[in-house]
Amino acid sequence: MTAPPAHILVVEDEVKLARFIELELSYEGYQVSLAHDGFVGLTTARDAKPDLIILDWMLPGLSGLEVCRRLRTTGDKVPVVLLTAKDEVSDRVAGLDAGADDYVVKPFSIEELLARVRAHLRRVQETEPEVLQFTDLSLNRQTREVFRGDRAIELTAKEFDLLDFLMAHPRQVITRDRILEQVWGYDFMGDSNIIEVYIRYLRLKLEANQEKRLIQTVRGVGYVLRD
Hints:
Residues 129-227 form the OmpR/PhoB-type domain. The protein contains 8 helices and 12 strands. It is α/β, with parallel strands linked by helices. Helix 2 (38-48) runs parallel beside helix 3 (64-73), helix 6 (157-167) crosses helix 7 and helix 6 (157-167) packs across helix 8. The chain is elongated, with a radius of gyration of 20 Å.
């Protein structure tokens, strides 16, 4: 069994904004739940156990700060990104003291919010098992070994890093820009076709014995690991 996409809970009472965030997160491959008031948000957080919460400060019922405080008092360590129009230092301190992990001021760019989400999910993923498994493909992060069934596959360092990133996000459509950012780094200035080249290398090695293709192209967008 492969890990499902990360589950993100969005607690936001502005319905249009909540829907916009939901669509953007879904496009990135995340599973998304919505709540429009503090009580429902708190209940959903406790019942659904999301991987990350995007939480508005000003909510009907319970405020975002109170939702965060109540989660932390029960030992819940889920990453919380607080959304607010408040931008004073004292407000930032209050949010962090309530247990929020991050703070995004409205109005914000969706690109910034998505970057914060990715950063916090990466920190959570650091505690994941060393071995990633997808159908008959396995990758050991500690030994840097890759197997397709019983067949060992020799990969270069960058091929391994690319496959690791894809296997950490199974069935999620990942854009070329995100792959460049995460595998090659923000400051990469090399050949713009580098991703296509390495995807081709990986396919040749993963399918050397006529195995089923797992790395699939989503035209105009990027790639997805899908069985």
